[in-house]
Amino acid sequence: MLPIVVISGTGLYTPPCTITNQELVESYNRYVADFNLMRAADIASGSLEPLQESSVEFIEKASGIKQRHVVDKAGVLDPKRMAPSIPERTNDELSLMAEMAVAAARQALDNAGCSPEEIDAVICAASNMQRPYPAISIEIQKALGIGGYAFDMNVACSSATFGIEQAANAIKAGTARRVLVINPEICSGHLDWRDRDCHFIFGDVCTALVLERADLARRPGFEVLGTKLATQFSNNIRNNFGFLNRGDEAGIGKRDKLFVQEGRKVFKEVCPMVAEHIAGHLQGIDKNPESVSRFWLHQANLNMNQLIARKLLGRDPEPAEAPVILDQFANTSSAGSIIAFHLHRADLTAGEVGVICSFGAGYSVGSVIVRKR
Ligand code: CO8
Hints:
Elements: E1 5-13, E2 17-20, H1 21-38, H2 40-45, H3 56-63, E3 67-70, H4 73-77, H5 96-112, E4 121-125, H6 136-144, E5 149-153, H7 159-173, E6 178-186, E7 204-213, E8 222-231, E9 237-238, E10 260-261, H8 263-284, E11 292-297, H9 302-313, H10 326-329, H11 336-343, E12 353-360, E13 364-372
Parallel strand pairs: 4-5, 4-6, 11-12
Antiparallel strand pairs: 1-7, 1-8, 2-3, 6-7, 8-13, 9-10, 12-13
Helix pairs in contact: 5-6, 8-9
Protein name: Beta-ketoacyl-ACP synthase III
Keywords: Acyltransferase, Transferase
Domain Beta-ketoacyl-[acyl-carrier-protein] synthase III N-terminal: 151-231
């Protein structure tokens, strides 16, 4: 018989700086005024469209986001820079991603009541890696004094749930007893803060989870009843940054080397896909959406989450059924659904069932059905 796998601990590292929508819009609109002044002649001749201002009202209505945490506020808000300032560290120092990961991991280990030496594997699952190698996960492994093995993986916003499945499979297969899954997301580094359509979307954060064999766990935790992953190619969310970019100098610095999306199409296509995915997953283990106490959904857009929950339940969800954290954190890519799980699970009682679900670029969807022990 395969061992039962539990999520026994979680951790959250939140960068200390926050940017409110008001601060973001003020900085963006200063950039717009400077740009339009500098290019006034082109705008007057009709060869260039003036840039349009952003607005707090639009951001809150279209997304539900009120603020975001970032690793560097000054660089992002400087209208002449509009990118975080992250000085490169020496090879002997911990990278920024690993530093955030170690802080979140220590919390998760503490929450699970286990020590780093008891972990057999580290999976760093995130949308962007600070470098290709040595793997960020191996750096984290070394910093925490963990044995076994470690690897990095990326499925954009779905990285955490895809990582959870890899961890659960390793535990079931007996290749690891306890696995740390960590999601350091520095989205501010890959966001075009000069693009009005998306400058408000992302924030930085790091989450961590401990998964282990139920018979070894010191905390009741949440039993993993099942995981289900799906991908379907789409060009609607894209990032063409990569190691081959220098092979074509003409492309370096082009807009598509940062996050780009067709937000409306994503909204329209992904919501039904996610609702069907979750319903199908639940049905596969003889459950239905009404039997689920909590949906910890990916946190990209408030309207999106409400629509998905409505499709599943046939009614508007109660706030506690599908907790929202994106108002405070914005879209933190793979970490979003895990932040919701971290902050909104303590009140569930033994036997209650919940679904962690992520979705995003790929397209990708990952769901994890759990039961409180
Ligand atoms: N202020 C004022 N007006 C604006 C602004 C602004 N900031 N931005 C756009 N407008 C205008 C537009 O120009 C448009 O004007 P018009 O009607 O005259 O053309 C109007 O407002 C409406 O614009 P949209 O149609 O774009 O607005 P939407 O209502 O569709 O809202 C959203 C935009 C919020 C982006 C919405 O479409 C959305 O949330 N879609 C889903 C997005 C999503 O979930 N994406 C997932 C991405 S994340 C992921 O998968 C992994 C990424 C990895 C991380 C990368 C790190 C950076």
